[in-house]
């Protein structure tokens, strides 16, 4: 698309349905994970070829003018103040001199979506439509009558026409107009819907562009605002967002999905769960903020089932943000909750999950209590471990001592897994027979090549066929290392933290017999969390000392450090293959942001092994 268009964002409304939130913050400036809503919209619309952006103003005009004047978009924006609110039609008429030069797009300032705007504009330009409305099938808002050709059908009074052959769609709040549309809008206060009706009655075509299936949120009420923010947080694979401007957040007790926006002031022992803390809010000492939006001096209570209602099943609320195909639903209320884990019928690890849970709990490994099982439906009822993982906790705790304390607790679990559990593994045949052997090591390097190198990076590997021999030697050597019971994916997102900093493990159904260094690498060289090198060295020494205290493990630990480097290479390649598969194969794009750290770790480690594995080193350094 080469044609430049004008952009218009209606931002004058009072946001009546959003009260009491809009009494304090104008709707366009609602914070969404560190950015005002209008900034997110401006970042999106400004990627279109355009000759200017118009914004109308009325309610809290000064606050909006101040923000626009400090924004990166200030030189592209023309403001259109309104003494009284002119409505959706009157706002366009008031900006007629700005809009009349060519096609223009109107994007409501209270809408978040992933609509491809360039496709919408291109469709309009080639369609001959007077107006093209972006619509979708959204039952809650389906009120627009559309015929088989996508044309809107209305009476001259702005009412949609029911009838056979028509379907009902919802308007997204985004539309492209030809400048001739402006003649159908009278001066003064008016509705754009009435202008649509006038144009249709005169024989002009108001048509639609179907974007059904897109992510779309209307920030019209406190509930829809909170639901949209939490949905964005979850879709990013996160449970906690804390603005970088917030200091001292480590004194808070956080659970569930929690957002703390800029310039908030935390206080000791406050408890936050499923809440949004708005900019500048003072969080009082020992206060509780649960299922709410909290501002400075006010709070809006919400219902948890309404916040997450779009993910309910059988009365439960979908939880978890990882890469697993298993689905987890929280059921119950008022602190008495459990989690239903549902597996696919083809999940071969379902039986292992049950057997491993019983076996590990017998040896005091902190895995969730198994309350009931339903093998026919591949589901289990388990203890609710909350939503706070080590990964999320590290986002807001500060200080080396606190960080090391949490990691030492995790390493204590590994020591028990690598010793006492291993010594009794014969009593869990399913685990004993599951071995991290040569074939599995080769599978990991093949996964790395297929999913990451050739898949995501689209690299031609014809000239590096000799790398297969290096992978063979790497697997033979790794398979020769002494084996214990290992978790196999012992990283920060699989370690949950309950009240009192009690650690619990999840996603252990992949446990097997393998080199213990693989687990140590997974947690201390974690692609999700970059540890300071001094902290990592201290924690590694802590694990080694704990293991050496056990007389029968001293000889084993003499060779442990020799296994670290190869396990690091294996683990980083496995992680890159997994991130590529989850992002490209399963559409979980948020895993892409962890690739740079995994690749950095792999490059760092392969440099130490360049003499032994020169082709692998060359490949990795070229990525």
From the alpha carbons, calculate the radius of gyration and give it in angstroms: 29 Å
Unreliable residue runs: none
- Write the CATH homologous superfamily of the largest domain: Aminoglycoside phosphotransferase (APH), C-terminal lobe
Domain module count = 3
Give the assembly state of these chains: single chain
- Could you name the CATH class of the largest domain? Alpha Beta
**Span of the ends, CA to CA:** 33 Å
The number of strands is 27
Indicate the mean pLDDT. 88
Distinct helical segment count: 21
Percent of residues in helices comes to 25-40%
Supply the helix-strand structural class: alpha/beta
CATH architectural group of the largest domain: Alpha-Beta Complex
Q: Name the shape in a single word.
A: elongated
Give a short account of the largest sheet: 8 strands, mixed
% residues in beta strands: 15-25%
Describe this structure in words.
The protein is of the alpha/beta class and 623 residues long. It folds into 3 domains: 5-217, Spore Coat Polysaccharide Biosynthesis Protein SpsA, Chain A; 222-307, no CATH class; 390-622, Aminoglycoside 3'-phosphotransferase, Chain: A, domain 2 (Alpha-Beta Complex), CATH 3.90.1200.10. Helices cover 37% and strands 21% of the residues. The strands form 7 sheets. Strands 1, 4, 5, 6, 8, 9, 10 and 11 form an 8-stranded mixed β-sheet that branches. A 6-stranded antiparallel β-sheet has the order 18-19-20-21-23-22, with helices on one face. Strand 4 (50-57), helix 3 (61-70) and strand 5 form a beta-alpha-beta unit. The mean pLDDT is 88.
């Amino acid at each position: 698309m080469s044609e430049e268009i004008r952009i218009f964002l209606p931002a004058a409304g009072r946001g009546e349905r959003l009260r009491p939130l809009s009494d304090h913050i104008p709707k366009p400036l609602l914070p969404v994970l560190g950015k005002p809503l209008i900034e997110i919209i401006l970042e999106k619309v400004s990627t279109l070829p355009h000759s200017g952006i118009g914004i109308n103003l009325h309610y809290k005009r000064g606050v909006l003018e101040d923000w626009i004047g400090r924004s990166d978009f200030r030189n592209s924006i023309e403001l259109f103040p309104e003494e009284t609110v002119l409505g959706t039609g009157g706002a366009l008429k008031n900006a007629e001199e700005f809009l009349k030069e060519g096609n223009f797009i109107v994007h409501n300032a209270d809408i978040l979506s992933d609509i491809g705007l360039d496709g919408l504009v291109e469709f309009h330009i080639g369609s001959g439509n007077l107006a093209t409305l972006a619509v979708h099938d959204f039952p809650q808002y389906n009120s627009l009558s559309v015929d088989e050709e996508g044309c809107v059908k209305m009476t001259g009074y702005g009412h949609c026409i029911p009838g056979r052959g028509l379907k009902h769609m919802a308007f997204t709040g985004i539309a492209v107009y030809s400048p001739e549309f402006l003649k159908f809008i009278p001066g003064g206060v008016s509705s754009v819907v009435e202008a649509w009706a006038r144009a249709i009655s005169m024989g002009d075509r108001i048509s639609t562009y179907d974007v059904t299936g897109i992510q779309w949120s209307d920030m019209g009420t406190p509930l829809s605002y909170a639901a949209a923010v939490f949905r964005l947080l979850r879709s990013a694979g996160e449970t906690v967002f804390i603005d970088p401007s917030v200091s001292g957040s480590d004194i808070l007790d956080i659970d569930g999905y929690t957002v703390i926006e800029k310039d908030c002031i935390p206080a000791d022992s406050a408890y936050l769960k499923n809440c949004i803390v708005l900019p500048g809010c003072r969080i009082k000492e020992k206060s509780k903020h649960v299922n709410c939006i909290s501002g400075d001096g006010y709070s809006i209570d919400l219902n948890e089932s309404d916040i997450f209602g779009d993910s309910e099943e059988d009365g439960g609320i979908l939880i978890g943000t990882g890469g697993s195909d298993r689905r987890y639903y929280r059921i119950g209320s008022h602190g008495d909750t459990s989690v239903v884990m549902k597996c696919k019928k083809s999940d071969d690890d379902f039986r292992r999950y049950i057997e491993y849970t019983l076996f590990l709990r017998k040896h005091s490994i902190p895995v969730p209590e198994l309350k009931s099982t339903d093998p026919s439906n591949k589901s289990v009822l388990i203890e609710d471990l909350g939503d706070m993982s080590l990964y999320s906790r590290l986002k807001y705790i500060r200080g080396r001592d606190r960080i090391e304390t949490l990691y030492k607790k995790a390493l204590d679990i590994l020591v028990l897994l690598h010793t006492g559990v291993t010594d009794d593994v014969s009593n869990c045949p399913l685990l004993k027979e599951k071995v991290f052997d040569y074939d599995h090591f080769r599978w990991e390097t093949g996964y790395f090549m297929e999913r990451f190198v050739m898949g995501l990076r689209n690299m031609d590997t014809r000239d590096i066929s000799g790398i297969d021999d290096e992978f063979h030697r790497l697997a033979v050597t790794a398979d020769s290392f002494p084996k214990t019971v290992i978790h196999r994916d012992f990283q920060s997102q699989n370690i949950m933290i309950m009240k009192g900093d009690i650690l619990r493990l999840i996603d252990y159904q992949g446990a097997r017999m393998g080199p213990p260094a693989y687990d140590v690498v997974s947690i201390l060289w974690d692609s999700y969390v970059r540890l300071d090198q001094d902290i990592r060295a201290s924690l590694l020494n802590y694990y080694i000392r704990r293991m050496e205290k056990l007389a029968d493990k001293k000889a084993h630990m003499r060779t442990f450090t020799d296994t670290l480097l190869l396990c690091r290479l294996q683990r980083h390649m496995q992680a890159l293959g997994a991130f590529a598969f989850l992002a490209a194969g399963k559409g979980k794009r948020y895993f892409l942001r962890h690739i740079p750290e995994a690749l950095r770790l792999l490059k760092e480690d392969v440099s130490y092994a360049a003499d032994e594995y020169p082709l692998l080193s060359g490949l990795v350094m070229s990525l």
